[in-house]
Amino acid sequence: MSGSLFQYSRAADINAAVTQGSRAGAVFLAGGTDMLQLWKAGTIAPEAVVDISRLPLDDVAYADGKLSLGAMARLSDVAAHLEVTRSHPLIADAILASASGQIRNMATVGGNLLQRTRCPYFRSDGLACNKRIAGSGCGALSGENRQAALFGASPSCVATHASDLAVVLAALDAEVEVFGAAGPRRFPLSDLYRLPGVTPERETNMVSGELITVIHVEGASRFAARATYLKVRDRASFEFAVVSVAAALRVENGVIVEARLAAGGVAPLPWRLTGSEAALVGRAPDAQAISAAGNLAVADARPLAHNAFKIDLLRNAVIRALQTIGYQP
Amino acid sequence: MNAATVETSGSPIDEQAMERATVALSLTINGRLHDVRTASSATLLDLIRDQLGLTGTKKGCDMGACGACTVLVQGRRIKSCLALAASYDGEAITTIEGIGTLEALHPLQAAFIRHDALQCGYCTPGQILSGIALLSEKPQSLEAIREGMSGNLCRCGAHPNIVAAIAEVAGL
């Protein structure tokens, strides 16, 4: 046994989950693929583990242009779902680029979105990390920061968010439904995550005891014909992104009428490239427009000592993703 | 720790604390029902190996990276080192001990032998179970097999032969 001891309980229903999960020292367990790693590494030491994996929140449904992904749906089930592969291939592509076959059979949609950063200073007991031990400093800021953020970081934390799924959901304007003591809430995925600022330990705007119940993606099938997820990583499979790009276009009469671009591996949260999106609309998807979008994507980048290579990588990833979907007939 | 220390620590409160730190589980493993009490914090891997003595399932990295601990739950492959045992109460699990017999190997086991798909053999139980699950997902190409097996590492470097063995059974 590598981690600390804890009590285990299985939540009988969602109200019991909220009650049990609100207690000090309690954490939720869904697929367990991130939670058990954090516990074994000593990054977290829960007193109580509340198992929510059997709550009836695993439905994947599509009707009237609205896709809903239950928070407890396994990633492999989502990626294999007919309406995901047919109408939302971007979601299936991002999931199949994530982790390994075994992990995708365990990991859930909600857990994937709430996974903690892979920053080695956060995951290694004994190293400085403001996210893990308040006031201990950010070891990555002046240390090994090859994986660190280009955007949205602060002197307190330069870690990136590791989810592939979150990047495509950000591009598709997904919404998150949560449930807690105050009942259900629904808000854009962009409001789920927080920038580190001076409180890097607060990664989301969820409150104690709240859990994600459903992810909503509406009207996104219009991008099905021109969408791609490009993940650049240090090895071809079972690896986190160094940089990733989710790109989706709608083209009418040779002109881009809608553009969605989000980047992963470059910020503390999935990073929408709104400047590039705005510059593409109204133009033909030609080399000039795509090159301009690539340059705009990195205009505000703030590199550290070891991650400046990500600027070129992101610019080129944006260009390649747009070439892939832009030059189609 | 001497006997006196053990006795003084055995107060009713401590027993209650012990009770809270354990869970009673009922698991079907390779078709046989096991009723066990185990630590709340035990992984499925530790339960299978240390408590039930089924040591065919291997512990490699213990962090979800290497795949040596792969088992099947209702036919789907998972990493048992990242599975909390308590969470799998009531499930049907297949370990390598439930695959084939000496007299009648599973077709993938026989293919591993034909293709020399192992050297030290430590990763092999996980490779076989992962490969069986991948075959049920019907991979259509060698590339799909390589991608589908990326969750199982072989430090001896038998990957090309492992892919060849799976491809043969898949009919590719």
Concise account of the structure shown:
Chain A has 329 residues and is α+β, with helices and mostly antiparallel strands. Helices cover 30% and strands 21% of the residues of chain A.
Largest protein interface, residues of each chain: A-B, 31 and 38 residues
Count of folded domains of chain B: 2
Could you give the count of β-strands of chain A? 12
CATH top level of the domain at 225-326 in chain A is Alpha Beta
CATH topology of the domain at 225-326 in chain A: Enolase-like, domain 1
List the helices and strands and how they pair.
The complex is a heterodimer of chains A (329) and B (172).
Chain A: E1 7-10, H1 14-22, E2 26-29, H2 35-41, E3 48-51, E4 60-63, E5 66-70, H3 75-80, H4 82-87, H5 89-96, H6 101-106, H7 109-113, H8 120-123, H9 139-142, H10 164-171, E6 175-180, E7 183-188, E8 211-218, E9 227-232, E10 243-252, E11 255-264, E12 271-272, H11 274-280, H12 287-297, H13 309-326
Parallel strand pairs in A: 1-3, 2-3
Antiparallel strand pairs in A: 4-5, 5-8, 6-7, 6-8, 9-10, 10-11, 11-12
Helix pairs in contact in A: 5-10, 11-12, 12-13
Chain B: H1 3-9, H2 12-20, E1 22-29, E2 32-39, H3 44-51, E3 70-73, E4 76-79, E5 92-94, H4 107-114, H5 124-136, H6 142-148, H7 159-170
Parallel strand pairs in B: 1-5
Antiparallel strand pairs in B: 1-2, 3-4, 3-5
